[in-house]
Design the sequence.
């Protein structure tokens, strides 16, 4: 190493030391005693995930640790990977061999029948294949009648499947689907425009598109019947990437009628969303087992946010919040004083002038945490832009982020609301009166770990880092960051991600927002994070999501 390089390195180390000493001088730290989280699981949950992505698999396991549940998932070799479907026969055999009396099972029908969400979008399941799955589920229930099977199935989205080739025909199909959906909802449409669009679609493509929804509706009707006869303890039907009008909604109306006509109305739920459903079902199961129905007060940074329909959603923010509360077995109340939990919703849209409401939101959230009211913050951005969310303002004001019960701001309203409610509900479950002090402490640390992971991914990565990473990839020759060649460029792309994440963590872990002590509910103890580390990679060959692991280091605050 040259003298010049050694000199620059020494200078950098001295500057880092000076910065650390300056930080300690202006932010004195409490006396800390390091502590680790140790707790034996209080129950087991078997999960057959929707797919192998972290929200569908790893996040559910992490949420289970909050409430002391051991979430068991299939071996990775049986699961899907991006466009490669999972081993459906192997998954069925694994479940049959692993299930035991009294188990709770969270079961993705799309994974068990098609091999995952992407496979379900592109492949068909014949009547024979559907009936074979129905027979398998009946046999599974007969063999383990005390195990409770909670199943979920996803309705196809409006976008045509990739097997319908040709950009122009796919674009016309989308426009046609929206018009037909409006007509089916009883709204006036331009019938001449509808007919013009129809003439540009081949009979084969339209048959494939409409047949996909018909196939899915027949499958879900069979699942409703399985719920009615007790084979399934509960069924959730999710609408993925919905829009207010389209052919997918015609299927949804058909299923609503089937649910109303069945004897399983109370045990079948239609919801908007997909990736977060296993998370919310886990919370629902734990609440059911504990006989707990969390009372939730819903608050908004601005009144207009309640009626706002955010991207990739078919319903408003408030309608989404209402259905997710019911999905976890909760009920909505009229005042925060009557609530076990406050769900605080941000739905920022810079074009609507909603950014001005964020200052008042900071004040409102500060009041909630000062009163030690459990609060789940959903921080949505209309344009998925770092300038819209609330989090940077909270950091600037030294708001104690560690004292939030939950945080979520990723992707769609349904994903974020479902994740935040699941985390907050499970955090409450971890603090029930029959839990010991050690269990409460372990639950608080598991919850804080999940919370910090969501902050790092949902804000720092998805709002600040993903766009620069995509631009760098495109400069290197990628034309589509949703279909990367990670087989040949994995180390470079991952190193770029890790560098940006490390830079974010280095700054974030010195903030008072992260260092703020937080109470262990129901005890006289306070904990604090004295260090934070994180690692991340791309679970699939695309930049849309990352596999992020947050590792906070905890200490008891000594009075």
Sequence:
């Amino acid at each position: 190493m040259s003298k010049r390089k050694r000199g620059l390195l020494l200078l950098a180390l001295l500057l880092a030391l000076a910065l650390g000493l300056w930080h300690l001088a202006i932010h004195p730290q409490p006396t800390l005693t390091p502590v680790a989280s140790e707790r034996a699981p209080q129950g087991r949950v078997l999960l057959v995930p929707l797919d192998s992505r972290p929200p569908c698999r790893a996040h559910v396991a992490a949420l289970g640790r909050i409430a002391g549940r051991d979430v068991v998932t299939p071996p990775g070799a049986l699961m899907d990977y991006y466009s490669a479907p999972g081993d459906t026969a192997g998954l069925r055999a694994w479940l049959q061999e692993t299930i035991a009396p009294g188990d709770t099972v969270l079961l993705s029908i799309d994974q068990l029948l098609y091999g995952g969400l992407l496979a379900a979008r592109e492949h068909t399941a014949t009547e024979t294949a559907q009936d074979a799955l129905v027979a398998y589920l009946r046999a599974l229930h007969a063999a383990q009648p005390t195990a409770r099977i909670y199943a979920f199935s996803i309705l196809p989205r409006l976008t045509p499947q990739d097997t319908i080739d040709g950009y122009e025909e796919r674009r016309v199909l989308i426009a046609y689907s929206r018009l037909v959906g409006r007509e089916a909802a009883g709204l006036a449409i331009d019938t001449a425009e509808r007919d013009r669009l129809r003439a540009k679609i081949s009979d084969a493509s339209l048959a494939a598109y409409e047949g996909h929804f018909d196939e899915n509706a027949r499958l879900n009707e069979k699942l409703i019947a399985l719920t009615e006869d007790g084979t399934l303890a509960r069924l959730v039907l999710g609408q993925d990437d919905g829009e207010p009008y389209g052919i997918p909604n015609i299927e949804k109306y058909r299923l609503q009628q089937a649910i109303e006509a069945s004897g399983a109305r109370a045990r079948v739920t239609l919801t908007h969303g997909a990736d977060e459903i296993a998370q919310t079902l886990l919370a629902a199961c734990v609440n059911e087992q504990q006989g707990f129905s969390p009372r939730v007060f819903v608050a908004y940074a601005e009144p207009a946010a309640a009626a706002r329909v955010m991207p990739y959603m078919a319903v408003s923010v408030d309608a989404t919040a209402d259905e997710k509360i019911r999905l976890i077995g909760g009920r909505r109340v009229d005042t925060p004083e009557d609530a076990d939990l406050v769900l605080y919703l941000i739905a920022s849209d810079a074009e609507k002038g909603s950014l001005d409401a964020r200052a008042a939101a900071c004040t409102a959230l500060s009041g909630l945490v000062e009163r030690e009211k459990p609060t789940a913050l959903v921080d949505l951005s209309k344009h998925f832009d770092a300038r819209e969310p609330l989090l940077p303002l909270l950091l600037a004001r030294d708001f104690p982020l560690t004292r939030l019960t939950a945080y979520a701001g990723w992707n769609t309203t349904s994903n974020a609301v479902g994740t935040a409610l699941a985390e907050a509900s499970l955090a409450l479950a971890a603090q029930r009166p029959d839990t010991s002090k050690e269990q409460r402490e372990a639950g608080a640390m598991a919850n804080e770990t999940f919370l910090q992971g969501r902050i790092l991914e949902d804000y720092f990565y998805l709002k600040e880092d993903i766009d620069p990473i995509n631009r760098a990839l495109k400069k290197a020759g990628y034309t589509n960051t949703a279909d990367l060649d990670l087989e040949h460029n994995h180390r470079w792309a991952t190193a770029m991600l890790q560098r940006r994440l490390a830079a974010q963590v280095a700054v974030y872990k010195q903030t008072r927002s992260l260092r703020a002590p937080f109470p262990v509910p129901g005890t006289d103890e306070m904990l604090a994070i004295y260090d934070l580390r994180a690692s991340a990679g791309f679970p699939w060959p695309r930049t849309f999501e990352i596999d992020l692991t947050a590792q906070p280091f905890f200490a008891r605050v000594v009075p």
